[in-house]
Amino acid sequence: MLQDSYPKLFADVPDLSIYTNDIQFVHSGIPEGCLHGLAAYRRLFETLRLTRRTTVAEADLAHTVHVVDEATVRVRWHARLWLRGPLPNLVGGRGGGAEPLAIDGV
Prior knowledge:
- By secondary structure, this protein is of the alpha+beta class.
- It contains three helices and five strands.
- It has helices at 2-5, 38-55, 88-91, and strands at residues 24-26, 34-36, 56-69, 72-83, 101-105.
- The longest helix has 18 residues, at 38-55.
Protein backbone atom coordinates (compact mmCIF):
# COMPACT_ATOMS: atom_id res chain seq x y z
CA MET A 1 0.00 0.00 0.00
CA LEU A 2 2.81 2.45 0.84
CA GLN A 3 4.61 1.72 -2.45
CA ASP A 4 1.38 2.60 -4.28
CA SER A 5 0.30 5.63 -2.21
CA TYR A 6 3.50 7.67 -1.85
CA PRO A 7 4.08 8.47 -5.54
CA LYS A 8 0.54 9.93 -5.70
CA LEU A 9 0.50 11.90 -2.42
CA PHE A 10 0.09 15.26 -4.16
CA ALA A 11 -2.81 14.07 -6.33
CA ASP A 12 -4.80 11.31 -4.59
CA VAL A 13 -6.12 10.49 -1.15
CA PRO A 14 -3.80 7.83 0.29
CA ASP A 15 -5.16 4.60 1.71
CA LEU A 16 -5.03 5.23 5.46
CA SER A 17 -6.47 1.85 6.43
CA ILE A 18 -3.10 0.52 7.66
CA TYR A 19 -2.75 3.24 10.30
CA THR A 20 -4.12 3.07 13.83
CA ASN A 21 -6.33 5.78 15.29
CA ASP A 22 -3.53 6.89 17.63
CA ILE A 23 -1.02 7.64 14.84
CA GLN A 24 1.35 10.56 15.45
CA PHE A 25 3.07 12.72 12.87
CA VAL A 26 6.07 14.49 14.39
CA HIS A 27 7.77 17.44 12.72
CA SER A 28 11.42 17.18 13.73
CA GLY A 29 12.11 20.91 13.62
CA ILE A 30 9.17 22.03 15.76
CA PRO A 31 8.57 20.32 19.14
CA GLU A 32 4.90 21.34 19.21
CA GLY A 33 4.52 20.32 15.55
CA CYS A 34 3.02 16.93 16.36
CA LEU A 35 -0.31 15.79 14.95
CA HIS A 36 -2.30 13.23 16.91
CA GLY A 37 -4.90 10.89 15.47
CA LEU A 38 -6.04 9.62 12.11
CA ALA A 39 -8.30 12.61 11.40
CA ALA A 40 -5.37 15.03 11.83
CA TYR A 41 -3.17 12.83 9.62
CA ARG A 42 -5.88 12.83 6.95
CA ARG A 43 -6.07 16.66 7.12
CA LEU A 44 -2.29 16.83 6.64
CA PHE A 45 -2.62 15.02 3.30
CA GLU A 46 -5.58 17.23 2.32
CA THR A 47 -3.39 20.28 3.02
CA LEU A 48 -0.57 18.86 0.89
CA ARG A 49 -2.94 18.36 -2.04
CA LEU A 50 -4.42 21.86 -1.61
CA THR A 51 -0.93 23.39 -1.56
CA ARG A 52 0.00 21.43 -4.68
CA ARG A 53 -3.08 22.72 -6.53
CA THR A 54 -2.76 26.35 -5.47
CA THR A 55 0.90 27.32 -5.05
CA VAL A 56 3.02 24.67 -6.76
CA ALA A 57 3.57 24.59 -10.53
CA GLU A 58 5.29 21.20 -10.58
CA ALA A 59 6.26 18.61 -8.00
CA ASP A 60 7.96 15.27 -7.85
CA LEU A 61 8.40 12.87 -4.98
CA ALA A 62 10.81 9.97 -4.50
CA HIS A 63 10.57 7.47 -1.66
CA THR A 64 12.00 4.28 -0.23
CA VAL A 65 10.27 1.87 2.14
CA HIS A 66 12.32 0.18 4.88
CA VAL A 67 10.91 -2.69 6.94
CA VAL A 68 12.48 -2.23 10.37
CA ASP A 69 10.82 -5.13 12.17
CA GLU A 70 7.47 -6.93 12.37
CA ALA A 71 5.68 -3.85 13.68
CA THR A 72 7.63 -0.98 12.12
CA VAL A 73 7.89 0.32 8.59
CA ARG A 74 9.82 3.49 7.85
CA VAL A 75 9.31 5.51 4.68
CA ARG A 76 11.99 7.99 3.67
CA TRP A 77 10.85 10.54 1.09
CA HIS A 78 12.15 13.55 -0.80
CA ALA A 79 9.91 16.07 -2.57
CA ARG A 80 10.91 18.84 -4.96
CA LEU A 81 8.43 21.67 -5.47
CA TRP A 82 8.60 24.29 -8.17
CA LEU A 83 6.52 27.23 -6.94
CA ARG A 84 4.08 29.25 -9.01
CA GLY A 85 4.48 32.96 -9.27
CA PRO A 86 4.40 35.96 -11.55
CA LEU A 87 8.11 35.45 -12.24
CA PRO A 88 8.55 31.65 -12.34
CA ASN A 89 12.25 31.81 -13.18
CA LEU A 90 12.85 33.77 -9.94
CA VAL A 91 10.52 31.95 -7.54
CA GLY A 92 11.10 28.34 -8.43
CA GLY A 93 9.50 27.64 -11.81
CA ARG A 94 11.32 25.11 -13.99
CA GLY A 95 11.30 27.42 -17.00
CA GLY A 96 14.08 29.67 -15.77
CA GLY A 97 16.14 26.98 -14.12
CA ALA A 98 15.50 28.16 -10.57
CA GLU A 99 16.14 25.68 -7.79
CA PRO A 100 13.08 23.85 -6.43
CA LEU A 101 12.03 23.89 -2.81
CA ALA A 102 13.26 20.57 -1.36
CA ILE A 103 11.46 18.80 1.49
CA ASP A 104 12.64 15.56 3.11
CA GLY A 105 10.76 13.34 5.49
CA VAL A 106 10.96 9.99 7.30
